[in-house]
Amino acid sequence: MQQAARIALHERASPGAVADSLxxxxxxxxxxxxxxxxxxxxxxxxxxxxxxMTAQSMEDxxxxxxxxxxxxxxxETFILKSFRDGYRVFHDGYGFLFNSYYEAVGARHxxxxxxxxxxxxxxxxxxxxxHVDAAMLxxxxxxxxxTWQRIAPLLELGLHHEMQHQxxxxxxxxxxxxxxxxxxxxxxxxPVVPAQAAPQVAPLRWCDYDGGVVAxxxxxxxxxxxCEGPRHRTLLQPFALAARLVTNADWLAFMAxxxxxxPGLWLSDGWARxxxxxWQAPLYWQPLDGDNPDGxxxxxxxEGLQPVDPAAPVCHVSLYEADAFARxxxxxxPTEAELEAALxxxxxxxxxxxxxxLSSGALRPLPAVxxxxxxxxxxxxDVWEWTQSPYAPYPGFxxxxxxxxxYNGKFMCNQFVLRGGSCVTPDAQLRASYRNFFYPHQRWQFxxxxxxxxx
Length: 455
Description:
Helices cover 33% and strands 12% of the residues. Helix 2 packs antiparallel against helix 6 (122-142), helix 4 packs parallel to helix 6 and helix 4 packs antiparallel against helix 7 (145-178).
């Protein structure tokens, strides 16, 4: 694990650009992408003890050990068993332990009980990864061209699948460490530069858009998950987006005005959840002065318990809270089509998306830089932005046949779309068309919001 820890977390080798074709270069690029992604998972786990990697803090989260094993199970199940002659399964019971939700593949261990899997130990899971890695590299190197044509799309899917689990690994370990009264840090906090000790909250400006008929969804170039397409046209009315994300200072004003105590601001289900769970602030927030919120707030982060930065984007709020705040502010949440259209309009011709993603190494949302740019800031990175759009199929969507068809389509019910990535999203995972989705009550992800309004 120590060797893996020396691999930079900002490694940018991009499997998203890796399989732009299935020609001569794709095999070498996918091989490099495989090695990079697999090494990054180990680097992210390196600061953790075996005890950290085994515990499960809630049903929505999974132990780090399970993430490391499940991502290996994916390659073993969907590639090695089918395409490597004579492949020896590492352990006959791992298919049951580390399947997530693939009904077509078989039965599985119950998700809420993953933290009870003290066996296999972490050392054996790492042996499992090495076993799978060696076999995968052998398949990549030796598959004939016809077989490679079938392997390459599954391999690329597996790489993006593992990148999703890298983000989950960090959000899940944060939730676990937050349950510890000692508030242990995933890593030591970076020293504060004096000039940055008290960043100013950028003023709220609005960026206007004319609307009209726009095309959204993946255009078919490069990798995308099935739920990102087909590309299609949709009508947008004239709208405006806030030039920055909602900040902690904004949220403190909402709290001070009794935002968590005014049912008229809340959706009915949201108000019921707020009351049932006693929400009074974003997840991980706690008063600095015991039970006295007037003494200021701290928040649990991957660098331990830290004072809430008023200028940073608010984080770890549910859709219900985001919607209530938007109503309190006299605005609304954007639709996913509005955010995608705004992002596509602001992306440079290179098509690269830049922002506070995993490569920055910050592992926390950062304040916006004040400026007069015509396009909104922070459309990429910092926090996933809640939208008012339910996670539903685009016109013409069809899930692929077979087990991989269970990847996205069957979850298109009762969840909402988020856009833009977060400070723990691997760079290569993100595209303008990328659709994240969670249930409206969930808060443990790096989720925040941007205001929108009709014009």
